[in-house]
C-alpha cells in the first residue's frame, strides 16, 4: 500500500478546498491500495523562504520548516489540490515546495484543480516546478471546472453528484499508483546499493 499525501494548498478562510478534500477522501477510502493522509498547509505556517540556501545544501533553521520536511519525507507520492490565483498556484504552496528538496525527489505528483478553468494553468506551472524537484508529474489530472465548479460552489451541488468526474479520479489514481510503485521499487534498490557500498 502506497502512502500518499493530499496536499491542501489554499489557506484562505473562505477556501473551497474542503469540499474536494472530503470528496476525494471518500473515493480513496473505498480502495485498499492507498493510504491517504491530508496534509493541510494551514498546519505548517512557514515564513516566506528566508534560509541561507535550499535544504538540498544546508539544514533549514526554521523549526516549522523542519517539521514540514519530516512530514513530506513520509510519503511515496503526492496529490496537490490547487486553486488558481491569476494564472498560477498559490504563493503558500510554492513557498512550501521551496522549503523542501530531497524529500520530493523521485516520487510521483498528481494534481486536482478547481475553479472556472479547473486550475489548468496553475497545474501547468506546478508540473514544471515538480520536475525541478525531481518529482514525476503524471499525465492524468482532475479539473473541477466551469459549470461543475459553479454548480457546487454557488448552487449547493455536491461533487458526489458529478459522477463523470470519478472516471478522471480513477485514471489519476491508476497513474499515481503505477508511478508510485515503480519509483518506490527504484528508491529501495538505490538504498540497497548505497547500504552495500557502505559495508
From TrEMBL:
MF GO annotations: FMN binding; oxidoreductase activity
TM ranges: none
UniProt xrefs under Pfam families: FMN_red
Ranges for domain NADPH-dependent FMN reductase-like: 3-145
Gene3D superfamilies: 3.40.50.360
Coiled coil regions, renumbered to chain: none
One cellular component term from this protein's GO annotations in UniProt: cytosol
Protein name: NADPH-dependent oxidoreductase
Biological classification of the source: Bacteria, Bacillati, Actinomycetota, Actinomycetes, Nakamurellales
Amino acid at each position: 500500500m502506497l502512502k500518499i499525501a493530499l496536499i491542501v494548498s489554499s489557506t484562505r478562510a473562505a477556501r473551497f478546498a474542503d469540499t474536494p478534500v472530503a470528496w476525494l477522501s471518500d473515493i480513496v477510502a473505498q480502495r485498499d491500495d492507498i493510504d491517504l493522509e491530508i496534509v493541510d498547509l494551514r498546519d505548517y505556517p512557514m515564513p516566506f523562504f528566508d534560509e541561507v540556501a535550499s535544504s538540498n545544501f544546508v539544514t533549514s533553521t526554521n523549526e516549522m520548516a523542519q517539521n514540514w520536511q519530516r512530514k513530506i519525507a513520509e510519503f511515496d507520492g503526492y496529490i496537490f489540490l490547487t486553486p488558481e490565483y491569476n494564472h498560477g498556484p498559490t504563493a503558500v504552496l510554492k513557498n512550501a515546495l521551496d522549503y523542501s528538496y530531497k524529500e520530493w525527489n523521485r516520487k510521483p505528483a498528481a494534481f486536482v484543480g478547481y475553479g472556472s478553468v479547473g486550475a489548468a494553468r496553475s497545474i501547468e506551472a506546478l508540473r514544471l516546478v515538480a520536475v525541478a524537484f525531481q518529482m514525476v508529474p503524471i499525465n492524468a489530472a482532475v479539473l473541477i471546472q466551469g459549470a461543475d465548479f459553479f454548480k457546487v460552489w454557488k448552487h449547493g451541488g455536491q461533487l458526489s453528484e458529478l459522477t463523470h468526474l470519478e472516471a478522471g479520479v480513477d485514471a489519476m489514481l491508476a497513474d499515481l499508483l503505477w508511478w508510485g510503485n515503480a519509483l518506490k521499487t527504484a528508491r529501495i534498490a538505490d538504498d540497497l546499493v548505497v547500504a552495500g557500498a557502505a559495508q
